[in-house]
Design a protein that fits this description.
By secondary structure, the chain is an alpha/beta fold. It contains 10 helices and 16 strands. It binds succinic acid. Succinic acid binds near residues 49, 74, 135, 140 and 195.
């Protein structure tokens, strides 16, 4: 409870003290940095994307910053899911039972399933399947643009674990509702919308892309209207039964509320944590509470889907 307002929400049976989650890929190198996000008000965290084997990622430059957002092509660097065990246990020591979700990926459906099963053994509360990274050939997006592949991937991961399974969707599609329904049919307990948008930044003097990978993923303020539109479209579809977590360009309470009114049950924050530091969680929680008090809402659940045609 923040003042008189109840900020608690729920994703797939997991209780969150508030709807703000640390998005995968930002300040999640260590258990300490993730626990620090919780100390500053995050209701839960998502780990960096983990694979069975360690990956170095792409050589620099891997990030290009602009006023309107950020383009990254890290290339999914990670120490491998087993080596990450000590970060999970350090998180637990510092943040207690605050929910932690493991983001996982692989180069085959089997690898995704193995990585998910290993992550469950490390004691995470849920799995976020990253089927949407636009920056690493043969990983991520290759699994996230075809409804058939999404269905097979989600159902393989579901069979490999007993904890809730979230699927993170790409905006690089002409029909995100179709992808969302495929993940739901495969057995996903919840969806995460959206990952970054595939983009490119060229250097006009060298006539080459600035990032070593060529393409990168756009995050930050420029992504927000796309993310809100995706959440709105998914949550407006009467066949959707599972909760959606909104992500993309959230840096203020107003942004978070907009996503929730479009149907999101919780929201993830990434680029704003990098730009403003983890205190952004406190600021957004406070801003949401003030808005709720001003508008006469007592529970944040009243905001979820409030902008959809027939409300929720
Ligand atoms: C990356 O590591 O390149 C970004 C991860 C992602 O977009 O999922």
């Amino acid at each position: 409870m923040e003042g008189q307002t109840d900020l608690s929400t729920e994703i797939a049976g997991i209780e969150l003290a508030n709807p703000l989650m640390l998005a995968s890929g930002i300040m999640d190198e260590t258990g300490h940095s993730m626990a620090n996000a919780v100390r500053h008000g995050a209701g839960s965290v998502v780990t960096k994307s983990l694979s069975m084997e360690p990956r170095e990622g792409h050589p620099n430059p891997v990030v290009y910053e602009m006023d309107i957002g950020m383009i990254n092509a890290m290339g999914l660097p990670n120490p491998g899911v087993e080596a990450y065990a000590e970060e999970i246990s350090s998180f637990r020591k510092k943040a207690g039972d605050t929910p932690i979700f493991a983001s996982i990926f692989g180069s085959s459906i089997d690898e995704y399933a193995h990585a998910a099963s290993k992550a469950e053994q490390l004691g995470v509360d849920g799995i976020e399947i990253n089927g949407s990274c636009p920056n690493a050939k043969g990983l991520g997006l290759q699994f996230g643009q075809s409804p058939g592949v999404i269905g097979d991937l989600v159902s393989a991961v579901r069979s490999a674990v007993t904890i809730p399974v979230l699927f993170k969707l790409t905006p690089v599609t002409d029909d995100i509702v179709k992808l969302a329904l495929a993940a739901q049919e495969g057995g996903a307990h919840a969806l995460v919308a959206i990952n970054t948008m595939k983009v490119i930044k060229l250097d006009i003097r060298t006539k080459r892309p600035i990032l070593t990978n060529g393409f990168g993923g756009l995050s930050g303020p420029a992504l927000k209207p796309i993310g809100v539109r995706c959440v709105y479209e998914i949550c407006s579809d009467e066949r959707m039964e599972i909760p959606v977590i909104g992500v993309g360009g959230i840096s203020t309470a107003e942004d978070a509320i907009e996503y929730m009114m479009a149907g999101a049950s919780a929201v993830q924050i990434g680029t704003a944590v990098r730009w403003q530091g983890p205190s952004v969680f406190e600021e957004i929680n406070e801003g949401i509470s003030s808005f709720m008090e001003e508008m006469g809402y007592s529970s944040i659940k009243e905001l979820i889907g409030a902008a959809l045609e027939d409300g929720e």
